[in-house]
Specification:
One of its GO terms (biological process) is regulation of DNA-templated transcription. It is built from 21 helices and 27 strands. The protein is α+β, with helices and mostly antiparallel strands. It folds into four domains: 189 residues, GAF domain (Beta-Lactamase), CATH 3.30.450.40; 107 residues, 2-Layer Sandwich (Beta-Lactamase), CATH 3.30.450; 145 residues, Beta-Lactamase (2-Layer Sandwich); 239 residues, Histidine kinase-like ATPase, C-terminal domain (Heat Shock Protein 90, 2-Layer Sandwich).
């Protein structure tokens, strides 16, 4: 299929020329994209993704499958109940999805769209499709950095052709964002799980046999104190954390390891505990401030317990330096705050500011690169504020390595390595760390970097954090480009609508010209009748004894004949109008009756009878009445044209009904010469005609009009003779499901 002018790998069937472009709520798409990008908790992310995909896609059921190693597992199932989407996290039973389609998507990493699964395709033999009687199916891969993360499967078994290309465009945009967010959430969940596992291991009850080994090798400081609050023992980790040798602490108050502002509070609280048993702080996992030997204050987490040894009360504590944890939490806060609440230029400014603060760098910027030679910054943070954006040549700069897809790290001496880079000189930069921004096919589309006037150490944590920032920046850049392409497509569609309206108007004018003689005859009949009745009325009034009842009856006939002529003229004038399309509630049966009345004279000239089969209580539709009149007139005139040269009496039948898919179905059946099977689809191509004076535009315009109303127009051969044209339109009660 083709999306916004870009060829997208997608296996589909049932697409036809003239697919309409539907209006998209870009604000809603942006909000949903932000919601997905800002969600780091996996359960919440899955719930948001499933609800969004089902609601935006118009599906009635959906599955989310993750690739865990080599195994594909169902993570969630979403279904429609009433007007709500219900998401279940229990794994769906095997056989409740078409395995051939899912395996195809896993193997090819391409999406699959079946407009009508009942039609013959390479998946027709799938047991699920046959048993479920599936109609509309969409299966999308979730891919990030050319890696398959999972599968999003949607289906709607109420109607075919549900997944229009505009819906698919939105779902692809959301799937791309979801793949990034899912991978980040899985990574975050793994980190949390590892942290929880480590904590559980540290806090496990230690046996006496292994106590000494654990204490000696522990990365946490282990300290014991007596009931006077004096240090009795410290392990090797205590020196690494606090800077004191064991001999420097033994016999000293435990408050030596605290800032002076906390010492009196601790000592008073400890004395109160010894006297009353009341604790002034929680003894398990409490965060406090410690002080190193050099006077530096830092965050720590303590857990204390009380033992009786040789009849004496001994207090054993485990002290953990959580400086790195706090920095990671602060970095994560910067990541979320800086990338989850804004879009556009504000997004990139927020990103570089929080990126610099999270990594404690003086400068940070994000750039875009389209040709591999030139780069342009999207946002630039310089110390304590935003700098002006700039463009630069990539050659002979530290960015050159990054924009070839590699991580670039220059710990120090940066200006000496790149003496021709004037920007580095202006910034007095001495160190650099940069990462590429990649699109779905691993093509470099830009990069992010931090700079400083002091050395930058690129540990694994810093690089992982920058990778997440780069991933979010790349996703936002792709979202902006996709939004621009969608906006351009909508503008193009508006131009196409105007052109279609112009062609439709010319088609109506041309058709009415062909009907001029017939319409003149139709109008002349009531006018002649009115003239005769007027003379009769005058004669009854001019007698010596005027016959008023007879005169009144003749006058009534005059009024009726004039009204009939006026109605015919009004219908003709409406078809000549050149108004902008206007949607309103339309009774399709009224439109049928109007066109029969207008074309009955044309049909009678060729001995053709027009017969109607109108379904009672037909629901209304939201449509442009004038455009539906034109479609029906084109189809009925085609039928008359096909029968007018036949030697036998002919009949044109117009039928309306409410079909099993909840749509209004209109059929126009003739008994004419028919259409060869190989030309059944060609007749809807522009400029294809079998008439000597035909333009070949009537049927293409009619199909475009019907598809712009979210309907379908097609033709089939009759069993005996002639052709039947069918078109469907969503009923007013079903419009929300068809949208």
């Amino acid at each position: 299929m083709k999306l916004n002018g870009v060829q997208t790998p997608c296996l589909a069937h049932g697409r036809r020329n003239g697919t309409s472009v539907e209006q998209l709520d870009l604000d809603a798409v942006t909000k949903v994209s932000q919601a997905l990008s800002g969600e780091m908790v996996l359960d919440e992310l899955i719930d948001t993704l499933m609800r969004t995909a089902i609601e935006e896609g118009g599906a009635e059921r959906g599955l989310l499958l993750f690739l865990r190693g080599d195994e594909l597992r169902v993570e969630a199932e979403g279904t429609i109940r009433g007007d709500k989407v219900i998401v279940h996290r229990e794994e769906a039973a095997v056989g409740t999805w078409p395995e051939s389609i899912v395996h195809y998507v896993v193997r090819t990493q391409e999406c699959v769209i079946l407009d009508d699964a009942a039609l013959k395709s390479i998946f027709s033999k799938d047991k699920y499709i046959a048993q479920r009687r599936a109609q509309s199916i969409l299966c999308l891969p979730l891919i990030h950095h050319a890696k398959l993360i999972g599968i999003l499967y949607l289906e709607n078994n109420l109607a075919p052709y549900v997944f229009k290309w505009t819906r698919t465009a939105v779902l692809k945009l959301l799937a791309s964002q979801a793949a990034i967010s899912v991978e980040n959430a899985l990574r975050y969940a793994d980190l949390r799980e590892r942290e929880a596992t480590i904590r559980r291991l540290v806090e496990q009850e230690r046996s006496e046999e292994h106590y000494r080994i654990v204490v000696e090798t522990s990365s946490d400081a282990v300290i014991t104190a007596d009931e006077r609050g004096l240090v009795m023992f410290t392990n090797p980790a205590t020196k690494r954390i606090f800077g004191y040798d064991s001999v420097e602490l033994i016999g000293k108050p435990l408050s030596t390891l605290m800032p002076e502002s906390m010492r009196e509070l601790h000592e008073a609280g400890f004395k109160r505990y010894l006297a009353t048993g009341d604790r002034h702080i929680n003894w398990q996992g409490t965060e406090l401030i410690g002080m190193r030997k050099n006077g530096e204050e830092f965050p720590l987490e303590i857990s204390f317990g009380e033992q009786i040894r040789n009849g004496q009360r001994v207090f054993v504590g485990s002290v953990r330096d959580i400086s790195e944890k706090k920095r990671a939490e602060e970095a994560f806060r910067h990541l979320v705050v800086g990338t989850a609440t804004t879009t556009g230029n504000d997004f990139f400014q927020s990103l570089v500011q929080h990126m610099a603060q999270a990594l404690r760098a003086r400068c940070a910027f994000v750039s875009t690169c389209d040709d591999g030679k030139h780069a342009r910054t999207l946002a630039f943070w310089n110390g304590d504020g935003f700098g002006r954006n700039f463009e630069f040549e990539i050659a002979d700069t530290p960015c050159e390595k990054v924009l070839h897809g590699e991580v670039a790290h220059y710990r120090q001496g940066l200006r000496g390595l790149f003496p021709r880079d004037k920007i580095l000189s202006d910034l007095k930069a001495e160190s650099y760390l940069g990462l590429p921004m990649l699109d779905r096919s691993n093509r470099v589309i830009g990069h992010i970097a931090i700079l400083d006037d002091k050395p930058i150490d690129a540990d694994a944590r810093a690089i992982d954090l920058l990778k997440i920032f780069a991933s979010r920046a790349a996703a936002e850049l792709k979202r902006q480009k996709a939004e621009d392409e969608l906006q351009a497509a909508l503008q193009e569609s508006e131009s196409m609508r105007e052109e279609l309206a112009q062609l439709a108007h010319l088609n109506r004018v041309s058709t009415m010209g062909e009907l001029a003689a017939s319409l003149a005859h139709e109008i002349k009949q009531p006018i002649s009748a009115a003239m005769t009745d007027a003379r009769t009325c005058s004669r009854w009034l001019n007698q010596d004894y005027p016959d008023l009842p007879e005169a009144q009856a003749a006058a009534s006939r005059v009024i009726k004949d004039v009204a009939r002529a006026s109605e015919i003229i009004s219908r003709v004038r409406s078809l000549f109008r050149k108004d902008s399309p206007h949607r309103e509630e339309v009774d399709m049966n009224e439109v049928i009756q109007e066109m029969i009345a207008l074309l009955r004279g044309e049909a009678a000239q060729h001995s053709i009878a027009i017969h109607s089969e109108i379904a009672p209580d037909l629901p209304p539709i939201m449509a442009d009445r004038l455009q539906l009149q034109q479609v029906l007139m084109n189809l009925m005139l085609n039928g008359i044209e096909a029968m007018k040269n036949m030697n036998t009496p002919s009949r044109l039948t117009v039928r309306s009904q409410y079909d099993h898919n909840g749509q209004v179905l209109v059929s126009v059946m003739d008994s004419g010469i028919g259409i060869p099977p190989e030309k059944m689809e060609q007749i809807f191509n522009a400029f294809f005609t079998s008439k000597p004076q035909g333009t070949g535009m009537g049927l293409p315009i009619s199909r475009s009009i019907i598809e712009s109303h979210r309907g379908r127009l097609w033709a089939v051969s009759n069993s005996e003779s002639g052709v039947t044209f069918h078109f469907t339109l969503p009923a007013q009660g079903d419009a929300s499901r068809a949208a």
